[in-house]
Specification:
Shape: globular
Strand content: under 5%
Radius of gyration: 17 Å
Helix content: over 70%
Distance between the termini: 53 Å
Largest sheet: none
Order of helices and strands: HHHHHHHHHH
Structural class: mainly alpha
Length: 210
């Protein structure tokens, strides 16, 4: 199971790296900038998680696998951007996949380090949203998690399934698959059907300035 979680972590890293690199190309960064954005999007959530639970040094900084996968995704996107862009909403699709995988692996790792249900759920969410937040901050745009899309809620839902499965001592593999599927499904449905939370609507420009 540890090997399976590690594989999910690497797949999530690749997915987030693709989303980061795609944003970098859209913002017309040079190849180094694209690789930086790719790596930042891929590992930020995992680094935040590991630092908060005391798993130091963070896994993403220990071996070469995370850096190598991030760079590979960045190079593929830089030179084959047209192929990536043919996918419908490529940034959002890869971001949704990374969100789901990081949310479930983050919650599982938090539980393995002895955190309680609430803390593990929140750490799973943070693992999922951290990469997307760092990607958006680096290109100076409002992070997706702060906008109207179902983003953090999808991560919370996936992480909650992991915690509930652990609480009732259910088989870990089916729980992981259900949790990842739920998170990805919610996020994908929000993209496809424009589901969103209520949006702030100030009564006047004067009120907005206060």
């Amino acid at each position: 199971m540890d090997l399976f979680l590690y594989a999910l972590d690497l797949i999530g890293t690749f997915a987030f790296a693709i989303s980061g690199a795609t944003v970098g190309v859209r913002y017309r960064l040079d190849i180094f900038g694209v690789l930086v954005l790719s790596f930042a999007a891929a590992v930020s959530g995992g680094i935040f998680r590991d630092l908060l639970i005391g798993a130091t040094p963070p896994a993403a900084l220990v071996g070469w696998h995370y850096l190598g996968i991030s760079c590979l995704a960045g190079i593929i996107t830089f030179f084959r951007y047209e192929s990536i862009e043919k996918l419908r909403n490529p940034v959002q699709i890869f971001d949704a996949l990374g969100l789901a995988l990081f949310a479930v692996t983050g919650a599982s790792k938090a539980l393995a380090f002895g955190l309680g249900p609430v803390s593990a759920t929140l750490l799973g969410m943070l693992s999922g949203i951290g990469g997307g937040m760092m990607r958006d901050i680096l290109v100076a745009r409002t992070p997706v998690v702060l906008r109207s899309d179902l983003y953090a809620l999808a991560a919370l839902a996936g992480a909650s399934v992991i915690v509930i499965g652990n609480r009732f001592d259910l088989q870990e593999l089916p729980v992981l698959l259900v949790a990842a599927g739920l998170c990805f499904g919610l996020r994908f449905a929000a993209i496809r059907y424009d589901w969103h939370l209520p949006i702030a609507s100030p009564g006047s420009d004067r009120e907005a300035d206060q």
